[in-house]
Each structure stands twice: as C-alpha cells, then as structure tokens.
Amino acid sequence: MAAVDISPKKDGGVLKEIIKEGIGEETPAAGCKVKVHYTGTLMDGTKFDSSKDRNEPFEFDLGKKSVIKAWDIGVATMKRGEVAILTCAPDYAYRAAGSPPTIPPNATLKFEIEMIDWKGADLSPEQDNSIEKFQIVTGSGYITPNEGALVDVHLVGSYDGKVFEEKDVQFNLGEGEDVGIIDGVEIALRTFKMGEKSRLKIKSKHAYKNIGEPKFGIPPNADLEYTVELKNFEKASESWMIPGPDQIKQLTLFKEKGTAYFKEGKLGLATKFYNKIITAFKDSPSSDEEEEETEAKDLRLSVNLNLALCYLKSNKSIEARDACTEALAINPNNEKALFRRGQANILLAAPELALKDFEEVLKINPKNTAAANQIIACKKLHKEQLAREKKIYANMFDKFALQDKQKEEEKLRGQPDVMRGVLGEWGQEERPGGRDATAFEKENPNILMLNANGTGEFKNM
C-alpha cells in the first residue's frame, strides 16, 4: 500500500505505509496505554534502535507527548495486529538537535511499528478505569462538547453481550438523565470530537449503580458497554463570558431550569443547574454596579437555599449544611437558611448545633411553630445523646478497671508465694537429717520443730 500523508497539516511530516492490515475497526485514543514492537532506521537503512532485538515490547501513554510527535499521530491510526512504516520528518521527530550519538541533527526517520494491543483511555474522574474509551472512528477537528452543548448522538448499549437499547438522541450535555443517558456516557462525550465513534466500557458506579434498570433487565451493580457516535454538536456559551446584566439573565434561566427539574423530582439535574450558577459566580468578578451586585446576591442566596433543599431530599446532610452556611454568609438572618441548616445538623447527629439554629429562627420569627417543635425535639435528642454517652463512658471505665484488675492479678500470680512451696511448706529435705514430719508439724506445716528428734543439739544454747 502506498504511503499516505497523515500529518494534521498535510505537510508531509508523517507518511504512513501499511505493511500488514490490522483486525477490527478500533484504534487507540489519546490516553490509551499502547504496547508495540518497533524498529527505527535512518534513511540510509542504518538501524539505531529496535524493541524486537531486546525481545521487549515498548509501552507508552498515547497523546501524552511521551514519544516523538510522529508516534502520537501515527500510532493513533493503527488497529490491533497492524504493521506499518512511519516516515517522520525532522519537525515530527528529533528536530535540529537530533539524538546523539545515534540520530544526527535534522534527520528524517523510519519506524516499522507493530501494534500489539492497548488498554482503553481512562476517562473516569477518579482515574480508576471505571470509564474506558476505545476509539473506532477518529473524529475531526480539535473541539469537543462543553457543559450544556447540544449533542446529537447515536448509541448502542449492551449488557453481558446482549444489546438492550439502540437509539438516536439529542440533548444538552449535562442533562442526559432527562432522556435516559447514564452518567458515564455523558462524561465520555466531553472528550469526543465531531464524527467520532468509540466503544465505552462503563462500571456500574457510572451506570445504573446499585439500583439497576428493570426496564432493560439490568441488575444492580452491572457493568455496561456502549458504542457511541457523536454525529453533531453545538457548543454552549460559557455563562461567565456573558457580560454583566446578560450573565444574570442567563444564570436566572439556569435557576428556572433547575427548579423545573426539582419539581419533577429529578434532584440530580436540579443540583447540576444550581451548581452551574455557583461555579459561574466563583469564576466571575463582582460587578461595580450596585443594582447588578444586589441582583447577583439575591440570586446566589436563592440558589444556595434551593441547593440545600435538594441535598436534604437526597440525604446529603453535609452538603446541605454547607449550602446553608453559604447562604447565611450572604444574609445572616435568613430564616430558611437557619431552619434548613438546623435540619441538616439533626441528620448529622449534632442536636446542640441544630438547637442554636432553631433558636435563631425563633428570634427572627417568633411565630414559626415548626422551629419551636424542632427545639423540643433537639432538647430531647440532646438529652438522649448525653445519656447514651454517659452509659458508653461508664461501660468503658468499668471495662478499663476490670482490665487493670486482671493485669494486677496476673502480675501477682507470676510472683512467688512465700507461704507456699519451697519457701513456706517444709519438705522432708529441709528438715534436719531429712527426717519425717512430726505429728505437730503435719498439723502445722508452716512450723519446723528444731529439736524434734531428741538429739539434744540445742541443749547448751
């Protein structure tokens, strides 16, 4: 097969000639750990390096600039089992410096490369291989979808080797849950280029988790595979790039969308939109206009209150408490923020902190009967908590005391008893002449009769 220019600029920098066709359709994506054999030669045929001579395949992370530029470009086009020759111009190899002593300056190089295998690119946020991508068709360009981008995809989902869904779907990235798209697919799509097609291996934590999906016959904790093609997408405007009043309008729309999802019971989506607003405010400078700053504060306060409610309903007590604290930093006397933080503190088993929050609520609004009832509940919980702790500590001290007593008894058992044994009970060998005990000595074993044999040995003392 004739050599083909595969350099991005089509400047002849990387020419590829396939010697042996590979199998399948997949090629490795950036981030994959690839395993290859290679032989490198100068244009005159001089060999300067070979993994085959060492009988040791070479492994590297594709697209991480750990090898010469030509390799990152060329190896990304290879299928499993493929053998190809890459002709690499100096700008795509070792440039003017060369790599002394084997590679001279401005050298064009040839590499015969055999693709052995690769592991998928790890796209998981935790970097634990819970989302792996295996590229089938390379996309075009360099742009990838951002949060909120309108994406048009075709996907095929399979479990245990059987297809359970196949569909074309269009949605805004970040809102896939609304159209049945799992979290792992959305995370992966942020790395796709236009027209890209890839196979995804997704662990249960980024799929249907410990719940499963009865509609598809997927049990809890099931790992899935998806083949996803990004047919088209339109990037979303970054909200922090929108100036002043327009940014507030855009973020208010986010809030309304989040609230709509909240009312539908889609707490995950609602939380995403509220957090978008929080992030946008963190990344944006404060406005010099008093009116705009007031609007921004009101929006931030409202969003934090809504976030707290979402977290409470999702049993995320720490996050709920923190959202309320953020709201109180904006308005220290906000009744809702104090009440919801009190609720979070109860769930966090901190009734004494909750009590303070509810008492503050009553200072602001003495007619808040819900807060008054919560105060009664907090005092009861705190009393029960103290009683439990007292019992725990009492048992703990009793246990320690018992352990100390046992240790002391063990120590005493290890010491000789002066009233017994060789030092206390007179044995025959200790009596003068080794005589037998007298009747009196048998009745009183701790007393030794010194003149029991009538010899008169102490007569003159």
Automatic annotation (TrEMBL):
Residues 31-119, 148-234 form the PPIase FKBP-type domain. SUPFAM superfamilies: FKBP-like (SSF54534), TPR-like (SSF48452). It catalyses: [protein]-peptidylproline (omega=180) = [protein]-peptidylproline (omega=0). Its EC number is 5.2.1.8. Signal peptide: none annotated. GO terms for molecular function: peptidyl-prolyl cis-trans isomerase activity. Keywords: Isomerase, Repeat, Rotamase, TPR repeat. Gene3D superfamilies: 3.10.50.40, Tetratricopeptide repeat domain. It holds the Pfam family TPR_8. TPR repeats lie at residues 335-368. This is peptidylprolyl isomerase.
